[in-house]
């Protein structure tokens, strides 16, 4: 059987502290490694566009919202699991770059909207396409049937853990 990086890490822990090793350890490490491999590729592409991962996620959430590409700051923070302070800082930076604009909420003076500017829509689309291409490039060495099986298995696992829609 072929071995991966996690097999080596698991072997060390099995020898050093057997109670730590096992399926739960290997599964969590493999999920983390998979995430790291995707993130490394995507982050490299985002850097070429002058974006951080967090900035990209905000642009992508706004773009995915559909026209007019706007959400309340609290909704953005909730979708991305960001604090209100973290969300505000990111929105300020994106505003300085003229990628997002703030609008007052006509129905609630205490609230506001954040929307993509015309340039923000273009940058968001370019970034999402670059991220998708980087992910696809990473998977070129994986047979499609294997990737589909892994995807289905991970979906089933997430649902079993309570992470359903």
From TrEMBL:
Gene3D superfamilies: Winged helix-like DNA-binding domain superfamily/Winged helix DNA-binding domain (1.10.10.10). It comes from Virgisporangium ochraceum. GO terms for molecular function: DNA-binding transcription factor activity. Residues 24-163 form the HTH marR-type domain. One of its GO terms (biological process) is response to stress. SMART domains: HTH_MARR. It comes from the Bacteria. This is MarR family transcriptional regulator.
